[in-house]
């Protein structure tokens, strides 16, 4: 039997409730007369008749005010107000009958208040008892998993109410850091101190803890997670407060812990002036709009109400998906007087197509370009050198030259920490691209303000280790880490997108902006935390009985143990606390332009040795012995390798950073 919906039609259930309410009101009327020893005498039959009519009208009034639309199992405070309103209507009708039928000598003014209280008790109480009985039947006949709820605030109480009516979890205990409510009872569940967690987990056979603290900062959540990490439970959390308030999700839609909570960092609120300076009311173009970083940039941009947003990507489905999402976001924005609706244009295309880039920028009058399109996966670019160079170097150069020719006001390149003293082709191509923008800045007649923003790994981006670790843990392991000492910088995609927009607004030309990524994190520590918080133990030399093993696979081609954000030591702060400005040397356009032509020839001829030599000359610190990870690499004469160093551009060709 389905205890949520007893197999009766909704109409039959409502009729049964109306009959029960009629009996409850009749009982309240009878008790009211008996408690005050009122005798209607010869008018008794008439009193019974008119009281019955009043009860019938009262039940119809209950129906009119919506008392029978509320489901017993989900009755709450709002339903209580409706019961109060209904009891008042019934008391009014009963009082009218009482004063009209009986003579003034037989009247007792206390009978109406007593009837009102009894009607409220019987009508409301019968529903409360029925609700408790149904919940008890559900809990007894449908087994649920016991859970502990961390946080006895408003979200915790909402979560308990939702879970008690659900079929998956059974709240066993509350845990809260506030000493004032420890020991109290909330929704029939006792509140304990966090120090009692180990005993509670054992006594209630709990395997999951649900965090009900959506308004807590990431730092506060990290502190709590550190306390829970050693416990043999899977930790989950309720959705973000904003998502619940906006109606996107419900409080009982629990999910795994976000990696942001493990990092414990809170986003600095964006500066509205910097956010809108290059976007609001302007025509904005995002290349690589279908990727993880590009799509988040587009979401942030739409909220800033540009006149036009041009999306460019060669990935058809990604472009289609983000276009639909942005249209929905645009339509959901609140209306503002004199605000023009953003025109969203999705274009399939390649950033290496010079004609296309010029046509798009001219046709749509682009003011600001965020150049995100690039190949970013280090091992993949190591195996596909020519395409990596085409997309990362020539894609940037073509886009930048087109922007300069079309008088685009701002051009912002999304760069990477792997461009600093690169040991891989991807990093070398991104540093080459940075130098192209730096050199174009001082090119005579340039009106475009070029800048680049350099940051580390973005959580949630394509290729992030977090979803990989989560999948490996769900499959029973092992979790694969390249090296026990490898560290990486991490930042959320939302924060990265906001900082990119703000940095671009502060540019004066040729700026290299570096985002504050906080301290780097050891990847193996991140893996251990994720294993523990998903309710498993790590299996290693110290614990052979653990659940999930961590395996070290060795550094991948071109991968470093640690990343850097700065090439030199010259760095200054900006008006934003998380954005720094670096001053770095670069090759002038007179040197880079012939290199680009040489690189184009080498790519056309599939000359990997030539590509390697050109990158070594152009990018300081890039000194690979071979590009043998690319399947197209052919061993050439050793003289080509030995002569590469002598071809390196001398320091005389390096000029200091130009500033406007």
Question: How would you portray this structure in words?
Answer:
It contains 22 helices and 23 strands. The chain starts with 9 loop residues before the first helix and ends in an 18-residue tail after the last helix. Helix 1 packs across helix 2 (44-64) and helix 15 (385-405) packs parallel to helix 16 (425-441). The relative contact order is 0.07. The protein has a 9-stranded mixed beta sheet with strand order 10-9-8-11-12-13-18-23-22, with helices on both faces. Strands 3-4-2-1-5-6-7 form a 7-stranded mixed beta sheet, with helices on both faces. Strands 15-21-20 form a 3-stranded parallel beta sheet. The longest helix has 31 residues, at 111-141. It is an alpha/beta fold and 660 residues long. Helix 12 (316-332) links the parallel strand 9 (308-313) and strand 10 (343-348).
Defining key terms:
7-stranded mixed sheet; elongated; 45% helix; 9-stranded mixed sheet; disordered N terminus; 660 residues; disordered C terminus; alpha/beta; single chain; 23 strands; 22 helices
Report strand %.
5-15%
Distance between the termini: 77 Å
**Number of E-state strands:** 23
In angstroms, what is the radius of gyration? 35 Å
Largest sheet: 9 strands, mixed
The computed structural class is alpha/beta
Outline: elongated
Low-confidence stretches: 1-6, 636-660
In which order are the strands of the major sheet placed? 10-9-8-11-12-13-18-23-22
Query: DSSP helix count?
Result: 22
Overall pLDDT level: 82
- The residue fraction in helices comes out at 40-55%
